[in-house]
Design a protein that fits this description.
With about 400 residues, this protein is an all-alpha fold. It has one domain. The chain has 13 helices and no strands.
Length: about 400
């Protein structure tokens, strides 16, 4: 069977579903910023950074092992329930810790206790919704994936109407976003119909996840901090408004980021299945062929953004962003380097060499820790963007070197 037949039938449905989710994330960020202002949006961005950090943890423990192991456990109905139970447990435990520490967190960050507690509810609803999307996509249940995404679209439309007619407080914004994600999540639970499982079955799945995540989990934390250290530092050492501007621009590029995640989530299980069947060259060929076509189109879009950044900012009509077109250009340049790294990332995951991620992100974080003070004090937000670009180049060089050695061994 030709490699192209593995991806010919459903890749457009994957991209459509991912496009809906990405577009909603992008539009909601700008709608919230216009409603509550850049400073308050900076606090909201801080809550989202927390949500995304926990999402990276849950992905390392549950989602990424699931994507690689699905072809081995796909016939077992309890496997879906196991992943759901694991994610629910993670969200519950972290929520309890945050709620018990909410007074201290409020004093440290300036965010109100009700908004912090609402943030834990947003974390749970968002992570569970993301799980259902990924499970239905990984398992080929595309109709169900599209159904919950369509319901998310309807929920967002109601949210946008409320933002248009009412000026909201931060806590109200967070609670409305909880409702936006909770509704499709409940439908996802209905579709999944979680089942009880024996302890033996649970520990079989758990041992497999533990084996895969022993490098993925520490890597997730290192990766999150290496990618967000400059962003968090901008909020602490410059101002919450600076964090708001940075995250607002990142939200725009989040559309591209989500598409890249869809590309990775779609391609990794298929490449892993071929790789496990000892067809290593065929797996590499699949990754190369799909990446050239897919990433080439995104690179063209990024070049257009670089050339038309000023026009784009005026079109969006958020006054606080007009003087920040350089941030848009800098982020577009950053994403070009991220594109170049993606095929390498997928092959490393497919080959089971997850420790290379840990080592690469640790190297990036070390650079961030040693350079952030100088870069932020000297160039402000521009210094943060420069730091992210240098970090990406450092990881690119390291992974390319390690991949060349890996190919020689294979």
């Amino acid at each position: 069977m030709r490699i192209s037949k593995l991806v010919a039938q459903d890749k457009y449905i994957f991209l459509f579903e991912q496009g809906v989710f990405s577009a909603l994330t992008f539009i909601s960020s700008f709608a919230i910023a216009k409603n509550i202002g850049i400073k308050e949006f900076g606090y909201y961005a801080g809550i989202l950074l927390f949500v995304y950090m926990i999402l990276s943890v849950s992905n390392a423990i549950v989602i990424q092992p699931m994507q690689v192991a699905y072809h081995r456990f796909s016939a077992e109905k309890e496997y879906a329930s196991y992943n759901f139970v694991m994610l629910t447990g993670i969200c519950t435990g972290i929520s309890l810790i945050v709620v018990l520490s909410s007074q201290w967190i409020s004093q440290m960050t300036g965010v109100s206790v009700p908004a912090i507690i609402a943030g834990t509810a947003l974390m749970t609803a968002f992570i569970l919704f993301d799980f259902f999307r990924r499970w239905f996509l990984t398992s080929g249940q595309l109709t169900k994936a599209i159904s919950i995404s369509a319901l998310l679209l309807v929920s967002h439309l109601v949210f946008f109407v409320l933002l248009y007619f009412y000026e909201c407080e931060l806590q109200e914004i967070v609670m409305m976003m909880v409702a936006v994600y909770l509704i499709p999540t409940m439908i996802g639970i209905f579709f999944l119909k979680p089942k009880f499982m024996s302890k033996v079955v649970f520990y079989t799945y758990f041992s497999d996840s533990l084996h895969q995540s022993k490098w993925l989990l520490p890597t997730a934390m290192i990766q999150w901090w290496s990618g967000n250290f400059f962003v968090v530092s901008a909020g602490i050492f410059i101002s919450p408004a600076a964090l708001g501007v940075f995250r607002l621009v990142q939200s725009g590029f989040g559309v591209i980021n989500m598409i890249l995640q869809a590309y990775e989530n779609y391609l990794t299980p298929k490449a892993a299945k071929i790789f496990d069947n000892k067809s290593k060259s065929e797996a590499a060929s699949l990754i190369k062929n799909i990446s050239i076509k897919f990433l080439g189109g995104i690179a063209i879009i990024l070049l257009i953004i670089i050339l038309g950044a000023d026009t784009l900012i005026h079109f969006i009509q958020i006054n606080d962003l007009i003087t920040y077109s350089f941030v848009v250009k800098g982020m577009a340049i950053l994403y070009i380097f991220i594109l170049l790294n993606y095929p390498v990332r997928i092959f490393i995951r497919t080959a089971g060499q997850n420790h290379l991620f840990f080592e690469g992100y640790l190297l990036s974080l070390a650079f961030s820790l040693t350079s952030f003070k100088f870069l932020l004090q000297t160039w402000g937000i521009s210094g943060a963007i420069a730091g992210l670009i240098f970090s990406q180049l450092l990881m690119m060089a390291f992974w390319q070197y390690k991949l060349s050695k890996l190919n020689n061994q294979l």
